């Protein structure tokens, strides 16, 4: 693992734990607005409307996030626009890399002291950003580190978009060795439950997929929204004119176990949640991705593979098995490889396409469900050198 140059904590904010305040939504940023609203905003600030496009071209087209680097703008204009349209939303606390530089995690401090993380993953043919949609998460899945924190607050549209624009800039700088320089995919698999922050996540998706300079110009098909299964929001998503990939975190094919692993199942049962997912697939023609973290002796029994196969047989669905990434202090562990192989075999035998997800970012706690910034800062409060605990 490489710890990248650490961004020092500013002297007036000596310790992230000490600055924990009441969470509040951030100031407005141009990424919160569509182009028409940006034009209205710049004219209200006494600047000509064309400045909106200029700013947008810098931000979305050239991935420049700092107004001081927009040197074709007069200094007075920059001073006038910065606070209202380009406030700093994300302050990097630390960045870490592993997998030979192909995976990097950034821990961000938001304007109110809340902490979130994003992960950039490079592959030979693509670069993917894994972003957070909330600070913390209210879904309380017991195997997920973020689930143990509870919800701090929703992220704003711009706080979501700015993570992606930053990571696209990192990719464009050529920092992800062995990968193309263009960030092409976004997965809402960082902290938070995206469908619990529905309007902002949808707006962020629109911003990310609108062509530059209004937006980032990514393909809708290359965006994945992952959910625990909030059925009304899934139905709402089905009615949107969006072609994003929907991932459903199922983790158990039976209600008894899913009630425990994904507590929201107590409200919306397996049958109902699968129905909503199949409807999404039927409406969009897009295969849904069923996420299933394999947990030793908990959900990895052959009969559960068979039951899952029965539920998904003939449906437009793909199973993505995730070897459990044990969270600190957890009683659970990943399934042994032979058990995992048997689980895959049974699903495939049932005619269900199945893959096992790679285990990117484990060394830097950047893997699925490991984005628990709160724990990192709590550890640093113990007096260790700021990064020592992360390096373990
Ligand atoms: N709230 C959304 C997105 C969160 S994380 C959701 O639940 O879908 C993305 C995926 O990582 C989810 O499938 C989540 O269940 C899974 N995950 C969480 N903790 C994990 C862990 N410790 N090991 C493996 N996968 C985990």
Automatic annotation (TrEMBL):
Domain Radical SAM core, residue spans: 123-363
Family matches, as Gene3D superfamilies: 1.10.150.530, Aldolase class I
GO biological process, one term: methylation
Record-listed [4Fe-4S] cluster binding positions: 137, 141, 144
Active-site residue list: 117, 368
EC number: 2.1.1.192
Cofactor entry: [4Fe-4S] cluster
Ligand binding (S-adenosyl-L-methionine): 192-193, 226, 249-251, 325
GO molecular function, one term: methyltransferase activity
Localization per Swiss-Prot or TrEMBL: Cytoplasm
Keyword list, A-Z: 4Fe-4S, Cytoplasm, Disulfide bond, Iron, Iron-sulfur, Metal-binding, Methyltransferase, rRNA processing, S-adenosyl-L-methionine, Transferase, tRNA processing
PROSITE patterns: RADICAL_SAM
Catalytic reaction(s) noted: adenosine(2503) in 23S rRNA + 2 reduced [2Fe-2S]-[ferredoxin] + 2 S-adenosyl-L-methionine = 2-methyladenosine(2503) in 23S rRNA + 5'-deoxyadenosine + L-methionine + 2 oxidized [2Fe-2S]-[ferredoxin] + S-adenosyl-L-homocysteine; adenosine(37) in tRNA + 2 reduced [2Fe-2S]-[ferredoxin] + 2 S-adenosyl-L-methionine = 2-methyladenosine(37) in tRNA + 5'-deoxyadenosine + L-methionine + 2 oxidized [2Fe-2S]-[ferredoxin] + S-adenosyl-L-homocysteine
Cofactor: binding details: Binds 1 [4Fe-4S] cluster. The cluster is coordinated with 3 cysteines and an exchangeable S-adenosyl-L-methionine.
Family membership noted in the UniProt record: Belongs to the radical SAM superfamily. RlmN family.
Function text: Specifically methylates position 2 of adenine 2503 in 23S rRNA and position 2 of adenine 37 in tRNAs.
NCBIfam families: rRNA_mod_RlmN
General remark: Reaction proceeds by a ping-pong mechanism involving intermediate methylation of a conserved cysteine residue.
PANTHER family: 23S RRNA METHYLTRANSFERASE, RADICAL SAM CORE DOMAIN-CONTAINING PROTEIN
Name of the protein described by the UniProt record: Probable dual-specificity RNA methyltransferase RlmN
